[in-house]
Specification:
6-stranded mixed β-sheet
Length: 319
């Protein structure tokens, strides 16, 4: 087992071990009181690839990534980074090993500048021991140029949009010279244009040899940005495939454990007598000539309507 300090020194020297996989997880198990979050899970990330994690809520994706980010410690199993066994005890351990995670809930200080957020705890100092803001802003500008991010290093984070805060988080992770970036639902609050910019940055990072783990629920993103994907279901590893080798239906079957045709199985429901009949119902400027029957023991489509609409229908039907 190699300590984070030793691994950091090895990385700094450039004498990194050669391994088929940049990151490898074998037989990991994690339990919480009354819940097995991960059960004998495996995962492998290649250098210079985008690897998407897919699965329903509670499948274990975020738990595994929090283990790789040093937030959780596995109860069993091993994690290898560039072929070397590592044990991560904190997020700082992960960063020192070259693994950075960009959380869905952004972790930035709103009343600090962009540059101050990126270099927090690593600020360049003057010869008198004070923070060298000029050098810090220059380093930030160079980082943004590398990533094609158009932001002012001296802007306060509270004045930025969600999309631009996401860019700051990415820049911060890259500033650690990380070999692995973990992105948890990075497009959840982004517009289509902002997503396109994010994907441009991801492709550029991939071309630099960085391995990217991409957690998403959006199927279209998998096919657009991911090279490979792994599926988890109820805390278990289901399988890994190239994104070019599968269809939407294949992925859904792996995620839910059944054929897509079985997602909404038809049920035989007995149709009873009419208990409410509405004919040619009108409400000025809202609807007109609406007719329907409600039968005994039959579900009403009102269940899917919004609460205000339901209240409106009930009011006029009762009248």
């Amino acid at each position: 087992m190699v300590s984070p300090t030793t691994m950091a020194a090895v990385r700094a020297s450039g004498a990194v071990p050669k391994a088929e996989y940049l990151l490898a997880v074998e037989g990991v198990r994690k339990e919480f009181p009354g819940v097995v979050a991960l059960d004998d899970v495996s995962f492998r990330l290649k250098r210079g690839t985008v690897h998407a994690l897919m699965g329903e809520n509670g499948a274990g994706k975020s738990t595994l990534m929090k283990i790789l980010a040093g937030i959780y410690t596995p109860d069993k199993g091993e994690v290898k980074f560039k072929g070397v066994d590592i044990r991560l005890k904190s997020p700082l351990d992960a960063l020192e090993n070259g693994i950075a995670m960009i959380h869905q809930e952004l972790n930035l200080m709103p009343f600090m500048t962009v540059a101050e957020n990126i270099w927090i705890r690593r600020e360049p100092l003057t010869r008198f021991g004070f923070v060298d803001h000029g050098e810090m802003n220059r380093k930030t500008a160079n980082l943004f140029k590398r990533l094609n991010i158009a932001l002012d290093p001296q802007a306060e984070v509270r004045d930025l949009s969600i999309a631009n805060r996401q860019m700051v988080e990415i820049a911060k992770a890259v500033s650690y010279e990380s070999d692995v970036l973990i992105m948890d639902e990075p497009t959840s609050a982004l517009t289509e244009r902002e997503v396109a910019h994010l994907f441009t940055i991801i492709r550029d990072l991939r071309s630099q040899g960085i391995g990217i783990v991409y957690i998403t629920h959006k199927m279209n993103e998998l096919f657009e940005i991911a090279d490979e994907f792994s599926v988890f279901h109820d805390g278990k590893y289901i399988g890994t495939h190239a994104s070019t080798d599968v269809t939407h239906d294949d992925i859904i079957k792996m995620m839910v454990g059944r054929e897509i045709t079985q997602m909404f199985p038809k049920e035989e429901v007995p149709i009873g007598d009419v208990v409410l009949s509405v004919k040619d119902l009108c409400l000025k400027d809202v609807f007109h000539d609406v007719s329907f029957d409600v039968r005994l023991a039959k579900s009403s489509a009102w269940q899917v309507l919004s609460a205000p609409v339901v209240r409106m229908w009930r009011k006029h039907c009762s009248a």
